[in-house]
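Order emerges. As here.
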Amino acid sequence: MLNEMEMKRGRRRMDFTSEEMGCWKKLKGTPKSAEDSDLFDALPDDIVLCILCKLSSTASCPADFISFLITCKRFNGLGLHSLVLSKACEEMISVKAKNWSESAHRFLKLCADSGNAEACYTLGMIRFYCLQNRGSGASLMAKAAISSYEPAIYSLAVIQFNGSGGSKNDKNLRAGVSLCARAAFLGHINALRELGHCLQDGYGVRQNIAKGRRFLIQANTKELAAVLATETPSAQNAGSWLTWNPLLHHRYVSVAGWTFLSDFGYNVPVPETHPANRFLSDWFSDCEGSPGPGLRLCSHSGCGRPETRRHEFRRCSVCGAANYCSRACQALDWKLRHKAECATVERWLDDGGEIEANGIDINVDVNGNAEAMES
């Protein structure tokens, strides 16, 4: 009798437990209470996209954004939204040559397809010079130029001046000058220098020495303003980076790693190289500095552009060792490095003015640059 009662009691307990389990399963599928709900899941996509746009526009390196994407599935999905990629800053898409891969290529293409001018320019430079896909690279740079992206406009000008990707007959000096004028109007410092030298030399435009020198002084002024804008107030007050040489002959003293504002006697640090130019320099350094048989790199360390055909770049007509894709690169490299290496020009600088050597005129311009170039 006692056994039967215990068995019934156990059966009732088992039945109750199964009912309880069924109720628990139903409760599991119901929404969480207000206290237990995740407020992040309740945020609208528009707010999350706004946060991601701010992050992509202020990231200091690609790793900052990638680490954010792998945080959760929602970030990974919204982080690749076209609006977020279109706002990506220069540092976020600055891919290094040693890390180049198909996935990096796809990411840059995603950014470029989203309308990011920086990505269009960087991928265009990589395709044009490194991957030797000239048409696609030029199209991407043109897309960035349409968005008034200054480096892209200037790079297209260099391509026109040299006839890059084609033959010597494909040079279009007038188009190069027009593109330089557009980039200079937007404030590109190298374009201002290039335009100044073109006007001084009458290269692709009617010669106007006075106007050309004004453009060169403008480039110097903008260079100084850029340094003042980027330096910290403590560094500016210390004055360790900015020096002035009141004596004219001291203005041409060579200091490694510094550009010279010779019109005013100021020495300022070298502007930071654009990530696309850094990529080119690193890419061809890994190839032992040679872009191909018989092809040369621009001697200016901050450029990285290679020749696309033999004898495309101009060379220093005195030493023959330096090659330049543009007059702006020649002027910068002269101040940074080549002035100390080109011994023949160093000797002639003491005399000043115009000196003829082997039928080629050596001119010393307002910045102390020796213009000794031949095709």
Notes: The radius of gyration is 31 Å. The longest strand covers residues 360-364. The longest helix spans residues 2-29.
